[in-house]
Amino acid sequence: MAKNIFTSVFIDTTLKNLRRIVSSFSSNSGSVSVVSPIRIESQLSLWKKTIPNVSPYYAVKCNPEPLVLQTLIKNEVNFDCASLREVKEVISCGHPYDQLPPDILYAHPMKSHKDIHSLGQMNIKTTVVDSLEECEKLTEAKWSGSAFIRLAVDDKDSKMPFSSKFGATEKELIEIAKYSNIPITGVSFHVGSGCENPLQYKKAIKFASGTGFDILRNYFHLPKVVDIGGGFSSDPVFFKNTMKSIKNELDEIPRNRTIIAEPGRFIAQPSQDLFVKVIAKKPGKDGGWRYVVDESLYGYFSCIPFDHQKPAWFRVPESEYDKGRDVNYSIIFGRTCDSLDVIAKGLMEDLEVGDWLYFPLMGAYTSATASEFNGFPKPEVKKDEGLLPTTDDAWSMVKEFHRVNSTLQYSNTLVPIL
């Protein structure tokens, strides 16, 4: 099955490159994550070409791998941080001597007093609020900077909506604008992670740059920034179509305002591909096979329950003469002792112990949410030397995989709270 998928959308060079990557791994390796600075820079180029008037502030929570952060700093990208640790991770990467340090927006609307004091010591000047209580907390802590106000917007068509936890309503916005002693210098929103409906962006942009700004100015605040949040797909085709559909709304924002965004998935998802070895197999109870791979739902595959991802995989052929194998109803388990550690089940190509499986586009909410439960370490991280397929080609592979394997079931057990 995997070989047929490869040959239908790909070329022999790709298979050769994947074999070269696998051959470079240590014989003791069981799972390896390969980071691609080339893909990161390609996504940044796509962003600048598609929405050049929107400055990206990378959402560190999506993937804080040092090589990812270093590549972004080198390309003069700013950062959206939501914890002191994330701020320290960005600062620890340093910056080229001929560049200014990156700007850091502390975008968490709910902070502890300790966080507020530490941010002041780190010279972070802008944070986010979504309640009058948070403004009062900043005042008590003698916050010397400013804040953006995060608005509650429609996010029902996103994989992971946030409005049940974050965002001020119009009524709450008026209250904050009226009583806050903290200067409100911008308006932000987030339509939810993995947004699949451009209309959500349209409505949110109009509300933020129109009603939001008008209310703040009525109470003598001087907002200058529109922060359109994140949720952008990393699929180049989908991203370009989405941005094309909201171009009018972005163009209607007055030119004397600064537009920023907080892309995480858009940059992070193509930044890493995962290679995982099959380490065990035995017959299934009702036919087929039960496989165990050297990663788990508690590791990089935490993206399945937490982010509702459906990773695609391809067996890396041992040689150009490798033939396709039979297909059976089987289950792929993770390596932990938890019987619920199920990655996927359904009709799939037969596997053998020692096979390497290639999972493209595994950079978003994978390493960031991975644990070392059961004593199993996180995958080794290596830098791509230009052998991974391009983002466009990787997306073509993933789409073809799901077209052919539409009946596969994943362990998407966590339902978002709406």
TrEMBL record:
Its cofactor is pyridoxal 5'-phosphate. Its EC number is 4.1.1.17. The keyword Lyase applies. Keywords: Lyase, Pyridoxal phosphate. It catalyses: L-ornithine + H(+) = putrescine + CO2. The keyword Transit peptide does not apply. GO terms for biological process: putrescine biosynthetic process from arginine, via ornithine. GO terms for molecular function: ornithine decarboxylase activity. GO terms for cellular component: cytoplasm. This is ornithine decarboxylase. The lineage of its organism: unclassified sequences, metagenomes, organismal metagenomes.
